[in-house]
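Researcher: Quick test of sequence recovery. Tokens follow.
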């Protein structure tokens, strides 16, 4: 009897997992970012903007993964992340790791659908042992442009703008040929 019950539970679970979770409007918002993006990075006090790239890939119908590469002269930055929407928390949740920190960032975020503004916050241990607080506000201008403004500080109440990245969806090779 136990074997039959175990097989029935496994069959039901297999069917459920095969279909995957149902995508919410928040998941669909993230999925719309899939593709390759050109990035222009501006740092306060920098002589000139720098260039970079972002690639966002779908992971099923509820997650995206991303790779951000930036050239800061002698420093070649690379970061990778995941982002999804947790319907139980009613928040976007993610993770981020890069080549300039030694701790994992775990941002949580919200979306203002009326203004197409995506706001993420997190705290993160720095290599020197301090903790920094971050806020990332990304505004979307249609499907092919977005602007990300990074803020950082020693406390969540002392955040200052530290970087802006303007993204433009990269033209595909097919579009370039036309």
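Model:
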């Amino acid at each position: 009897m136990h074997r039959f019950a175990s097989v029935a539970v496994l069959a039901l679970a297999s069917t459920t997992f095969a279909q995957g979770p149902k995508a919410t409007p928040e998941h669909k918002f993230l999925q719309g970012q899939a593709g390759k993006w050109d990035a222009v990075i501006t740092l306060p006090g920098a002589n000139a903007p720098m260039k970079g790239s972002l690639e966002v890939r779908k992971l099923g119908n509820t997650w995206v993964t991303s790779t951000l590469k930036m050239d800061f002269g002698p420093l070649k930055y690379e970061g990778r992340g995941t982002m999804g929407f947790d319907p139980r928390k009613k928040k976007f949740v993610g993770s981020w790791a890069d080549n300039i920190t030694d701790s994992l960032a775990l941002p949580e975020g919200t979306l203002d659908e009326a203004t197409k503004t995506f706001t993420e916050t997190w705290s993160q241990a720095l290599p020197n042992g301090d903790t920094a607080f971050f806020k990332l506000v990304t505004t979307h201008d249609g499907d092919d442009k977005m602007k990300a403004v990074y803020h950082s500080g020693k406390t969540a109440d002392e955040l200052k703008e530290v970087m802006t990245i303007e993204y433009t969806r990269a033209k595909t090779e097919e579009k370039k040929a036309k």
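Strands lie at 35-42, 50-59, 63-72, 75-86, 91-98, 108-112, 117-125, 131-140, 145-153, 160-169.
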